[in-house]
Design goal:
homodimer; 786 residues; five-stranded parallel beta sheet; 26 helices; elongated
């Protein structure tokens, strides 16, 4: 436990920091309560108090205090610094600071730097048509939404990567610190390169309480807490107190020491050749929850307790006592000293602040990046495989990603993240040109580990996701490769990121951010060896609930289409792109030019596979690599055994094409959909995931009553690849049976073939259980060159 | 860092522990590789090796070592102990131990304790029709599925709660330790009561590697690791080595010390009145990954590296060199000493093991509990509210839950968990009879905290879920109350739990486990104050992808129906029950008897609200409390303004009733569905969540083309409750417009009313943006007593 004692600040400096802090606190309280009389130039009247009091005071004074002291550091050192606040409930604080810095009025001119603007600032907060009560995309200077807790520190690390001049100050609430994602992300310091990356300054804010309970870390004692933070690899500095003057001095002295240490670590690594993992400093700030607010309300203690969490005076509009307390509280900040006659911040309060884009609320890292570069993408067509050849799709992609890595080396703006699966997912080629980032110990036996690596692997999907989000939100590019089943671990994180993307589309001052790209592999149909725990294709369903304007789902059927889709996704901005692709050896169906065209269309008829001559008896459709293979194998069976049957083969890469055009921008117009799928012929659709998703996407199409979908129905565990298909009735034999059952008149004519399919399935079951392998004819089937 | 040195074991004891360990390792390797020649009584031939080698060796020898040493402790002390293994990849190890203990053959008589059984044991592993490669429900003695990592420690704590005589030994893999859920769960020790609960012994197994990378905790050095574990509140004992004889002595000596310490802590708390949080001991075991396996394969080091993770000799069937190495490896365990002439374990290998239900593989805690009690449920009818009265549904439920807590006090078998939201979710009445569990510091200002509390609150949904799963899987009962939006944090955990439930239905020896009950409140329609980050009703969609046989979703429209549904859920077993209910003041629609009947039916026509006399012009249906209110308000408008229009009101509590009977056991037969919803009249359906779910459930119903669903379409942020409805077009005015637009012939007749609805919506928008409140007529609307 380190404590820095010192009288760093002159009386004058203390006074101006304190004035700034009071101003920020005043403006925060005003936002929570007032819809009139913002400067309290007249006595406060009930009707000037909002009818619904919605907001969170508890964490706000602490966030404001840190804002003031970080501004001092920035102004003194010209430090490039952004501020990530885990306790997102502190929305009014961050907005108040942005207004004091002038950024808010620059961003939203209606909220001007005068009494009129201040009035609007107050009224809009947590008000219909106004702004959210949490830190949000609407808040200038933010990359981190408040609300769902746990992602601040991984976001901070993501922002710091490849920004060597940047310090990311990250306030971690002691409530948030109890979450799993936050607890895991402390170890991010084993991945941060003191040479090529910036620094993260974690500030654990112990205000002691959550909504209704004390926090764990505030109640384990300083010794145990010191041990914990030391164990996380940090050198913790403690600042505690409830007297503002004392805390100002302690915090300023500590900040000076901590920023000196950060600079010294970076200098040593960059210029003195010091290697090995540094013990980065961090701050533990222990101040009362709701500090400077009402000490007691209705006879119960409030300041320093959980009762300060939201709105300490809940009846300020209706209860004269509460109203008087509110006015007394707000006047305790002495607004008459803080704002000039126009209502603008008084010069003495703000003239010492950092200027221009060094203001935390205006730092360009938080809005598209300080010096963003488009990703250079080598022409993916050069990496393709010949049609007919067998390839591992993700391994082919890996070759291209390796060269993407190289092409962007000069700008250091591309990263691949994943939970220990880059090689398992067969993207290992990237390790030919970079390492896996690693600052912890390296043994001689280790491979591809290095302090400057651009591949980030930790066995925490949460941390991978948080790193990548922070990296993207500061204007860089990346790819998250993950086992399909386990990506559900970040369901909730992708929800929140999608909300961010949805919101910034409507904020003209927010720059688009590179898309969040998922490569889901080791997917449900090829987890026969790992069994049920590894089988779940539901992430697609999950993201499909997000706003259509931000979500894209691609199911490339082979290596070449995967390349084309990946190129498209890495070029895009403001989307969540989900790509599902296999890593096992599989046929390549389309030459590269055809693949690119097919992906551009999103779906299409594969004339070369069908024999319908424009008028099919049945449509066999597929979305996904394994379903495509089965549909083609079924088509082969049908064409050999029922040569008169006219089969059309349709392949879907872009799942959104199935929706009506009113539902999704990629939606296919009804006329085109009807032309491809017909309106009156049976459609047997083999789909990668849960079958009802296809019904959901198509239920308004004319031909929907004829649609029969096969997909994953939660059957299967440890078995063989083909057995997975049989268990879920999506195997080629069952697809043939489906066709026979659904094409009018075929049942009698094809009765023998149907029985043969039933027998084949039985034969398979017997064979697989005795040998542990799939039938040779299944394993060895190839598309016949007709 | 504590190290216990000592020669605890006699030569004889060492020999028998080592022999047991060798036997378990031999059987583990046999499972991974062999399908013949199990005892190696003849030279190993290629065709005796499985064609597909699927399994994980790396973690297995460590798990087996611990099993042996824990068995020694159990045998010596009669200790009730279960074994939770985080590195679930060690499936073959746990199966091997269960077979050596005899449990496997008792459970699966085909897998007998002889050479025939051993052969079957080997062949079935990771084989079609056999058993999964991970620890799974099929594994006797397990409550923790391997596969998705991170939940072992919270499961262990859940199992230990209210089992004062039990020790749960929990092996945490160093890979798993990187995950968020695991990292958070270390702090569970602040919630474990040394008086009323059992103990958890965490054993951090540092074998150093994941799939392709070293692990973080293995590379931060012993000092930093000691600090970390001390910071987590533990007293860590280190055992490290790669010489079996040495490690046997160190581990045995350490185990003795550690179990003595656990006993001393419990004695002090139970009999000496010692209070305060104990520093529970734990073990750090550092042994090589794949210990005793091949040291080198194809010139590359394997033992002690990531290459030992899965199958170290990948070509044993096809490569003579690999085959020879495999045979050498297996013979190195000296099977001829370990098994008798029949292939049964030799007496000396197993005669010292614990017997009966003290065997870890047979411990009844892992299969329904050692002394399970049905939950006593006071008659919920006594807690109801009169129809017409306003009530906060969850607060009413809280009163009943309080008495459930009291009624089961004697058996200590009911817990409520939640992330700091029990009071926010208005279930605070339970705190009248119990505390919130808390072993950390307590300040005078704190309320309802206590060491013996039965309400468990930590700001980690993962930890809450893990605790509850562990508690349920050992035969006890509970409820998880959570904000609706944030329950997505545990999407992945509920996936895995649902798979467990799905599997045990097909294992006749597994006893049913009490259902996992979610109460989702603070739901999407009442998060207007917290905004977008808190708005997401998609958890219902998520669980709907699980097997129909394990999932139930209930949307009680008021307090009385909530009571009835909660009673039903707490009585049930083997389900995941999701209840969505509001916490805000809302009308009570049904008297208790009607409520109970309505819930028993799952859905029904509300005759009292409609005027259709058996032949409606339109059906207005609702699922969810807020949708029900809006549908009734719309009905009121329609009946007042269009008295000739015959409106039927349908309310849905049990969402599964909407599905066809072939899809779900609760599905309504088509004839009943058609009778209620009609086949040819427009149905306007107001639904709590994403509207397409209703389409998915009903697309096969005859009347589906007439169905028009309103629900949440991702609109809204910080605003008012009614504005949320307007933004999503589910408000009463829009529902009236929907009726007018869809009932044939009504468009012209009701044109004026329709325009009035449009104007009302506009009036609302203006009013809410100027006042911050909803229109009085909306806020004050009550169902007219017609």
């Amino acid at each position: 436990m380190h404590v820095v004692d010192g009288q760093t600040l002159s009386a004058d400096e203390t006074a101006r920091i304190d004035a700034y802090w009071r101003a920020a606190n005043y403006l925060s309280v005003g936002q929570i309560y007032l819809m009139g009389n913002p400067l309290l130039r007249e006595p406060l009247a009930p009707e000037q108090v909002k009818p619904r009091l919605l907001g969170h005071w508890g964490t706000t004074p602490g966030l404001n205090l840190l804002y003031a002291h970080l501004s001092r550091i920035i102004a003194a050192r010209g430090q490039d610094l952004i501020y990530v606040t885990g306790p997102g409930h502190g929305g009014p604080g961050l907005v108040a600071n942005a207004w004091l810095e002038g950024t808010y009025s620059e961003t939203y001119p209606r909220i001007s730097a005068d009494v009129m603007g201040m009035g609007r600032l107050f009224t809009q907060f947590s008000f219909p048509g106004g702004i959210p009560s949490h830190v949000a995309p609407e808040t200038p200077g933010s990359i981190h939404e408040g609300g769902e807790l746990g992602y601040s520190l991984s976001h901070a690390y993501g922002a710091a990567l490849d920004n060597p001049d940047l310090v990311v100050a990250c306030v971690i609430g002691d409530g948030e610190a109890e979450t799993g994602p936050l607890a895991a992300s402390w170890h991010s310091n084993k991945f941060l390169d003191p040479v090529g990356d910036g620094a993260v300054l974690p500030i654990l804010h112990l205000n002691g309480y959550k909504i209704a309970n004390p926090t764990v870390l505030a109640r384990i004692g300083d010794d145990e807490l010191t041990a914990l933070l030391t164990g996380y690899g940090h050198k913790p500095y403690f600042v505690q107190g409830d007297d503002p003057a004392t805390v100002h001095q302690l915090l300023a002295a500590t900040m000076d020491v901590v920023f000196d240490e950060i600079a010294a670590i970076q200098y040593a690594a960059r210029f003195d050749g010091v290697t090995g993992r540094p013990r980065w400093p961090m701050i533990v700030l222990r101040t009362p929850k709701g500090w400077t607010g009402p000490k007691e309300v209705d006879g119960l203690p409030v300041e320093g307790t959980w009762r300060a969490h939201q709105v300490p005076l809940s009846a300020a509009r209706d209860d004269a006592g509460h109203l008087a307390l509110l006015e007394e509280w707000m006047r305790s900040y002495r607004p008459e000293e803080l704002f000039d006659r126009n209502g603008a911040p008084a010069a003495a309060v703000v003239d010492w602040l950092p200027r221009g884009d060094l203001r935390m609320s205006a730092n360009p890292h938080t809005n598209g990046g300080r010096s963003p570069h488009e990703l250079e993408l080598p022409d993916f067509r050069g990496y393709g495989v010949k049609a007919g050849e067998t390839a591992e799709a993700t391994r082919v992609l890996g070759g291209w990603l390796r060269d993407v890595m190289t092409a962007n080396d000069a700008h250091s703006n591309f990263r691949v993240v994943g939970p220990d699966e880059t090689e398992s997912n067969r993207l290992g080629a990237v390790l030919e040109v970079t390492d896996k980032a690693w600052q912890a110990g390296i043994d001689p036996v280790d491979q591809h580990l290095g302090p400057h690596g651009r591949v980030m692997e930790i066995l925490s999907e949460h941390t991978c996701q948080g790193w990548l989000e922070g990296y993207l939100l500061t204007g860089r590019h990346g790819l998250f490769s993950c086992y399909e089943a386990f990506v559900h671990i970040v369901d909730s994180m992708v929800n929140q990121h999608a909300k961010w993307l949805r919101t910034i589309r409507h904020l003209d001052w927010r720059k688009p951010v590179p898309s969040l790209n998922y490569l889901l592999t080791s997917h449900v149909w090829r987890q026969d060896h790992n069994g049920a725990s590894h089988q779940d294709p539901g992430f697609i369903d999950h993201v499909m609930n997000k706003k259509a304007e931000v979500v894209r789902v691609y199911l490339p059927p082979d290596a070449n289409t995967l390349l084309s889709v990946a190129d498209h996704c890495l070029r895009s901005r403001n989307y969540v792109n989900v790509i599902v692709a296999g890593k096992q050896p599989a046929p390549t169906w389309l030459d590269m030019d055809d693949a690119a065209l097919h992906c551009a269309r999103g779906l299409g008829i594969w004339d070369w596979a069908g024999n319908d001559a424009g008028d099919p008896d049945v449509v066999l459709a597929a979305a996904g690599d394994v379903p495509t293979l089965e549909v083609l194998a079924a088509t082969d069976l049908l064409r050999r055994h029922l040569p008169d049957l006219k089969v059309r083969v349709v392949n879907v890469v872009d799942l959104m094409r199935l929706q009506p055009v009113v539902e999704h921008p990629h939606g296919l117009p009804d006329a085109e959909f009807d032309a491809i799928f017909t309106t009156d012929r049976p459609v047997i659709f083999a789909y990668h995931g849960y079958p009802w998703l296809i019904h959901r996407l198509t239920y308004r199409r004319a031909g929907h009553p004829n649609l029969h979908v096969r997909g994953f129905k939660e059957e299967g565990t440890t078995t063989t690849p083909f057995d997975m298909l049989v268990l879920n009735d999506m195997d080629r034999f069952h697809l043939v049976m489906d066709v026979i059952d659904r094409v009018p008149g075929l049942a009698r004519r094809a009765a023998v073939l149907r029985q043969r399919m039933v027998d084949k399935r039985a034969e398979h079951r017997t064979y697989v259980r005795s040998t542990g392998e799939d039938l040779p004819e299944v394993r060895e089937w190839i598309w016949p060159t007709v």
